[in-house]
TrEMBL record:
InterPro entries cross-referenced by the UniProt entry: BACK, BTB-POZ/Galectin-3-binding, SRCR, SRCR-like_dom_sf
Keywords: Disulfide bond, Signal
Alphabetical list of Pfam families matching this protein: BACK, SRCR
Name of the protein in question: SRCR domain-containing protein
Signal peptide location: none
Gene3D superfamilies, alphabetized: 1.25.40.420, SRCR-like domain
S-S bonds: 52-116, 65-126, 96-106
Every SRCR domain range: 28-127
SMART domains to which the protein is assigned, alphabetical: BACK, SR
Lineage of producing organism: Eukaryota, Metazoa, Chordata, Craniata, Vertebrata
Length: 496
């Protein structure tokens, strides 16, 4: 093992030295603590200068990383994250295809033509390469060059089992464990990855982490990342990262019932946009596979009606698929489930809802503070009504709901329940739902996020109308705002 680390250190150092070549026109460098990440600077007219983050995306990051000899980019960083430069701002409004050999080959406004300040200096995180071979596995794979700054930390891990990690150092350690079959270390680092998942609200890190988990065959890490992205599906769809999601990742996301979106129609539109953006990258058979994951039966009937008037090229290419989905959707909305159950065949998840958050099906409670629980009690009680089911057949049959958050034992006892930890959420129906208990069950969900942030880090169901929020140590993901929750109560009716 000691020899392994020595070889690792020498190999990485050699790569590090090879990258320190004399600057020439159009050269790029990264300014930061690591060779593989930092503020991007480009050499022009005998001087190093920075790049504005306007138009800065993964395609531009890919060009920079490959130009520097790395195999690819993990993420594009904006907003002066790696500190502000002091020289000129050479490039602005970058438009790269991703295949250019150098950053200066991309489209931009012109040298030093910019309206930016250094607070907008762009950066990248590159996925660097180190080739090691494990002869016992007959395996040659890549390990991040970012291992170089962490060699002493890795050695300390083997002696103390303690290590300070970031996403980049964890990835290096995980790859080494994967290559050399140190399963326990791989599992431990996988847990660390899970703890780091919520840190990036742009979703770039999570998407990259999923692809990395696929390459290394870490199914637990794949599931943890997919669960987080599913819980944050509403925000992922509207983020710039959406268009960069791979086919196999999209396929996995669309099969999940824990995907949180406003409604199924919005998901269909997002998928259509993604397919259009991918162009020739996604063939007709792959398009069909993805569209078959859309649950047409659960699209709101008014939006289902509008779909038939769409004249998009995608719909024309898959006309039969859309027509079949529309027909089944209208039937599902017009008839009682008992009428069509026997003729539905093997529909798997087609009629099972995801977690739909449109106002008709959810209510939001923003808990401003836990330090003064007696303040704002009325703000922690909301009532609203929903149809008995998403099907239009039940639209006029209403169920009344009462959503409430308790922060003290006194509040719980006043409402006839006993609480041992806090906060506690209760979601009650007025009893009307009992009329449908032979055909409909309510698998309601509580969505936990941080106040005023686009981030969901916990989702749970209700047991006998109660959801006790677990301690931070027992949550699947770490709680980034333990004293400042927001709650969304979601009604999920399912035919049985």
């Amino acid at each position: 093992m000691y020899l392994l680390w020595c070889l690792l250190f020498l190999h990485v150092s050699a790569q590090h030295d090879r990258r320190k070549q004399p600057a020439k026109e159009g050269s790029v460098r990264l300014v930061g603590d690591l060779d593989s990440s930092g503020r991007v600077e480009v050499y022009h007219d005998g001087q190093w200068g920075s790049v504005c983050d306007d138009g800065w995306d993964l395609a531009e990051a890919e060009v920079v990383c490959r130009q520097m000899g790395f195999p690819g980019a993990i993420s594009a960083i904006s907003g002066g994250t790696y500190g502000e430069g002091s020289g000129p701002i050479w490039l602005d409004d970058m438009k790269c295809e991703g295949s250019e050999s150098s950053l200066s080959d991309c489209s931009f406004n012109g040298w030093a033509v910019t309206d930016c300040t250094h607070k907008e200096d762009a950066g990248v995180v590159c996925e660097a390469e180190l080739n090691l071979t494990n002869k016992s596995k007959n395996l040659s794979v890549n390990v991040s060059q970012i291992c170089h700054p962490y060699v002493s930390a890795f050695l300390r891990y083997f002696y103390t089992r303690q290590i300070e990690v970031s996403i980049t150092s964890a990835q290096c350690l995980h790859q080494l464990a994967f290559i050399f079959g140190v399963k326990k270390l791989m599992e431990d680092v996988g847990k660390v990855f899970t703890l780091l998942i919520p840190q990036d609200n742009t979703f770039r890190t999570q998407v990259s982490m999923y692809e990395y988990a696929v390459r290394t065959g870490d199914f637990v890490l794949q599931e943890n990342v997919l669960q987080y992205l599913s819980w944050n599906g509403e925000f992922l769809i509207s983020s710039p990262v959406w268009s960069s999601v791979s086919f196999h990742m999209m396929d996995a996301l669309l099969q999940r019932s824990d995907l949180i979106v406003k409604d199924e129609a919005l998901l269909l539109k997002a998928l259509e946009r993604w397919i259009q953006d991918k162009g020739d990258e996604i063939n007709s058979e792959q398009q069909t596979g993805l569209l078959n994951h859309i649950r047409f039966l659960l699209i709101p009937v008014d939006e289902l009606y509008e779909i038939q008037f769409s004249s998009s090229a995608l719909q024309k290419n898959h006309e039969k698929l859309y027509l079949t989905g529309l027909l089944k959707g209208f039937q599902f909305n017009a008839l009682p489930f008992s009428k069509i159950r026997n003729k539905m065949g093997n529909m798997s998840n087609e009629y099972l809802p995801r977690i739909y958050t449109r106002d008709e099906w959810s209510i939001f409670i923003n808990v401003t503070t836990f330090k003064h629980p007696n303040l704002g009690q009325n703000n922690r009680l909301q009532t609203f009504s929903t149809p008995a089911h998403t099907s239009t057949f039940y639209r006029e049959q209403k169920v009344q709901w009462r959503a409430q958050v308790f922060l003290t034992a006194h509040e719980c006892s006043n409402n006839g329940i006993s609480c041992r930890s806090f906060p506690v959420a209760r979601f009650l129906a007025d009893g009307n739902q009992n009329r449908y208990k032979s055909s409909i069950r309510f698998s309601n969900r509580l969505i936990l996020g941080c106040k005023n942030e686009n981030n969901v880090f916990h989702v749970q169901d209700f047991k006998t109308d109660i959801a006790v929020i677990p301690a931070n140590s027992s949550m699947a993901l770490p709680n980034p705002c333990p004293d400042n929750y927001s709650f969304r109560f979601v009604v999920r009716p399912e035919f049985i």
